[in-house]
Amino acid sequence: MKVKFWGVRGSIPSPGPNTVKFGGNTPCIELRFDDPDRLIIIDAGTGIRELGNDLMIRDFQKGPIVTEIFLTHTHWDHIMGFPFFTPIYVPTTALKVYGPVTYEEDTLDKVVGGQLTYRYFPIREAELTSKIEYVSLKETSLDLGDGIKLTTKYLNHPILTLGYRFEKGDKVFCTAFDTEPFQNVFCTDPDEPSYDEAMAQEGDNVAREENERLESFFEGADLLIHDTQYTQEEYASKMGWGHTTFEHALAAAKNNNVKRMALYHHDPTRTDAQIEALAEKYCRTDESGDTEVFFAQEGMQIEL
Ligand SMILES: [Zn+2]
Ligand SMILES: [Zn+2]
């Protein structure tokens, strides 16, 4: 398996002189398998534009582009690059788009392909001549063929969002973004009139179990790409927005024997200099015996 980052930034594209090194494109990851060749794309943020151009140069010479896009969810930063993905305009392209949908009356086709309408864009979806199929996903296990197994897991985000676990042979690759720890939804302050000790206890148990279930999902991963949009200080005022801290991701990786972890979904306000300062604090090599930790960077390629 080979993994390449085409977009690493959360929320909104943030190009400019302060994000040149780590990149300003929103999420898109290329996953390649050999023997046989297989291309899987995770998320269609603005990073997918450059990936599409690269595919037209590298892959199209060898034959039609056949690929699958697995969307973690349909927040704008994860789908906004789709209309700019050149292969969708090539008649021989065959594309399957998988993703979770929260509002069932809005199908995946409507949410993703619906960006190609005159309201937003100069070309309509009906004009596309490539073959595009949409598949709605829930928590499940799938055999993708060619020896590739996929397991999906619900994350904690304001809309339905999936973590992905791809396995081939003895290699495991996982994603967990956008997400934050599950919290106790009941009142936990004994001084509040709505406090109920049994309910508070039950809420604690449910949150803990959900967190353990999610974290065991990336047990033993060779590479985990994890949301780390916030510092602990920032998270204090942004709980419920669906993103998490460096401390949470590091502990989850360590407790579940993750070999390497890419810190991902960088806050759009985070400059290269700030990421480098955070790297001093949080990143480490595998010589420490713990999980190897690094910041995802556009153009970075990792072999598992
Ligand atoms: Zn996002
Ligand atoms: Zn999101």
Count of DSSP H/I helices: 7
Mean pLDDT: 95
Distance between the termini: 5 Å
The percent range for helix content is 10-25%
List the secondary-structure elements in sequence, H or E.
EEEHEHEHEEEEEHEHHEHEE
In terms of per-residue confidence, which ranges show pLDDT below 50 for 5 or more consecutive residues? Answer: none
> Mind summarizing the main beta sheet?
7 strands, mixed
Instruction: Output the radius of gyration.
Output: 20 Å
Give the strand order of the largest sheet, numbering strands 1, 2, ... along the chain.
6-5-4-3-2-1-14
Bulk shape? globular
Question: Proportion of β residues?
Answer: 25-35%
How many beta strands in the DSSP annotation?
Answer: 14
- Which structural class should the secondary elements be placed in? alpha/beta
- List bound small molecules: zinc ion
